[in-house]
Specification:
By secondary structure, this protein is mainly β. The protein is built from one helix and five strands.
C-alpha cells in the first residue's frame, strides 16, 4: 500500500505498524521522534499496535537539542 511520509510517497506492507515503518522502511531509530498520522499525534506506547492505512499522511518530527 502507499502512504505519504513527510510529503514523500512510500510503499509499505499491508500490515505495517509505525514501529515497522521506522525500523525497516525508513531505517530510522525511534529515539527523539514524534509521529502524527492524519494530523493526530500517536503516543509512542501505541506505535507497535497502530497499523497504517493506505493513503495515510504521516509526519515524523525529530527533536533537536538546544531549543
Amino acid at each position: 500500500m502507499e502512504i505519504t511520509v513527510n510529503k514523500k510517497n512510500h510503499r509499505v506492507p499491508e500490515t505495517c505498524s509505525i514501529t515497522l515503518l521506522l525500523s525497516e522502511v525508513l531505517c530510522q531509530p525511534p529515539n527523539g521522534l514524534a509521529v502524527a498520522i492524519n494530523q493526530s499525534i500517536i503516543p509512542k506506547i501505541s506505535w507497535e499496535n497502530h497499523l497504517l492505512q493506505s493513503g495515510d499522511q504521516v509526519i515524523i518530527i525529530k527533536a533537536t537539542p538546544g531549543g
